[in-house]
Amino acid sequence: MYADVILPLPLSGLFTYAVPTDMQHKIGRGFRVVVPFGRRKYYTAVVAKVHRQLPGNFTIKEIHSLIDSTPVVTDQQLELWEWVSFYYLSAQGDVCKAALPSPMMPEDLQKGYIQKSEEQFRLNPTFEDTGVAAILKRSPKQQLLLDEIIWFLTENERESISRSEVKELNGYTPMVLNGLIKKEILISFTVERSRLHRKAALTRSPYPLSKEQQKAMDAIQDSFSDKQTVLLHGATSSGKTEIYIHLIDQLLTEGKQTLYLLPEIALTTQLTHRLQTVFGNRIGIYHSGINDQERTEIWQKMLSETPYEIILGVRSSLFLPFRRLGLVIVDEEHETSYKQQEPSPRYHARDTAIMLAHMSNAKTLLGSATPSVESYYNAQTGKYGLVMLNERFGKIELPQISLQNTKDLRRRKKMKSVLAPALIEEINQALENGEQAILFRNRRGFAPMIECAACGWIPKCLYCDVTLTYHKREHRLICHYCNSSYSLPSTCPSCHSEGLKSFGAGTERLEEEVSQLFPGAVVGRMDRDTASGKDSFERIINDFQENRIQILIGTQMLSKGLDFGNVRVVGIIAADSLLNYPDFRSHERGFQLITQAAGRAGRRDKQGTVIIQTSDPEQPIYRLITRNDYEGFYHSQITERKLFKYPPFTRLISIVLKHKDEQKAEYAAISFFRLLRQSFENSVLGPNKPVVGRIQQQHIREILLKLDHSFSPAQAREWIKSAESRLRENSDFKQILLYYNVDWV
Ligand code: ADP
Ligand code: ZN
Ligand code: ZN
To answer: How far is the CA of 698 from the centre of ligand 3 (A)?
Structure first.
């Protein structure tokens, strides 16, 4: 008997092992095993298939041990893995790694190390160091081992140590260890206690829906009778979330599970609270802020007889084992952060959600105030159901949006700061009324550009082809691609003049200027420099919600689906920079971002004001934005997409090649391009050097496949794979990094 297993390694294909006789009646698809791989290494792997076909003429190794007594990955999950690996051209091992919490897949095991839930020890927090010293005064051996344990924990930044790890330490004997346990200096445990087991929160019933909301709810349910996927196009603050809550409630009565997907961890904070007040601890939260141990527990709970009935999470929660999935909600479905960029698998969580729902015989509800062009097209053509909800809850008007021409203001010497006078005026009024303001700027740091006024020298990253951003607090130049940081030279390294000038304003400079302009207000900033962890994010949002901050400055982080009650003014600084990406989606992104940002103004009880600062107000997209004309925007986009053969009329596969040696990158790209041409003919474009042509010392080339619907996905992938293996035959390209970005956004 043989087992084909998935190893958590970036290798394509499955690996076949012989199943020892005594394991044969215990093993099956979805079980974890320990297998030898490579020289003297052991890995955890997941069984994909058990069969009796004798593999080819190479020697087959035997499975070392079986970890589970029941499968930990369900059949349906494996099917989803297989689809993701096929469709997104990624190794099954990569999908496995993305799907399973890392403690479930320990890598590179030494033989015999594996134990299912090994005993762990941690220090008793009730002892002070001095107290311990007193207790151990007469037990120097125990003191020695304790010192070793403390050293181990500090060195590895861990809170606990396993029994087998203690055994490796100096001075270990079973008796010495037992002494420390008896004195309760060490606490022994097997399963980590975690935050998951909170007491049940008090819950309330969902709010009654307004008439318009009820109509939308009925229309959604109606639409589900003949469509698998429905798009809810509802204005910001129209109550989409309330509708989701009612739908989830409905599913609970049917005994079905709901998966509620959000594009980003930042949004889970507000929503967790909102959903928990209704659903208490029937809801599980799953994202990168949840530690590995807790993720493992959630996985186990989902496999148990009493799984969570609702999961709120980001894209990786798609991979949890659902038993009775009835509905997947994809909130803010237009968000590009649903697409994983790095590392592989580069999957799109919205599209994978639709596939998951399809495999589970469940429904998908996509929700957005600014649907993606693709989803809206699918709704227009009848592939998806479409439900509209135009009225904001409480009949609040959408905000007034106006433009400020900064070029013109500058010419007339009216721009005394980064903010236009009209915006300053609006913020002053808001502050007088005890209201708040939000300012968006899509660049972090102090000054996006430094230049020598004498010779034009510009500081660049040594490892990437990008200019460096000046960060004032650190007083350093930082590369936003690889995070390298450099000291700011006092004179120009090229001509030695002292005229280094900074240009532009990132969020950091904006914060400084705004603090000076409004000395009476507390100014907060939310960007990757101030809010990296989940906690700092929560803190800033809470401070703003409770009015401890009056003016909040942030990058796009701040524009997504947050619900604040007291925001009167939203300012969008340097809006043109949102539209100038060299990419067919840049206007779509700009429209979505500005409209969403505008949606943060005037929620709850009054109309808000939005001011967009632009130096090019004639761009047609601004007229669509100020009139809140989604339909007009959609039509302009879909016409262009059709004309230039972009999605949804084609499918794009971007192929990225990287090499330290630019010549090799170029040569490999040309070779691969030629190989692809043989089958794809004119549907291959390139190869191109991207705008940022080198990142972290790797030179980059891109090839684009633009496939119309006459190519079947299976055929296209077969051609791509065979071209790649032919490319790999050339030993020159051994070190080349090559990956695919399917449906790249
Ligand atoms: P969206 O998800 O469309 O942006 P929300 O569901 O967040 O809108 O609703 C906006 C605000 O209005 C929230 O503060 C929400 O609590 C409130 N709200 C929406 N619908 C109702 C309702 N039926 N009853 C009470 N409050 C509601
Ligand atoms: Zn110079
Ligand atoms: Zn760099």
So the answer is: 10
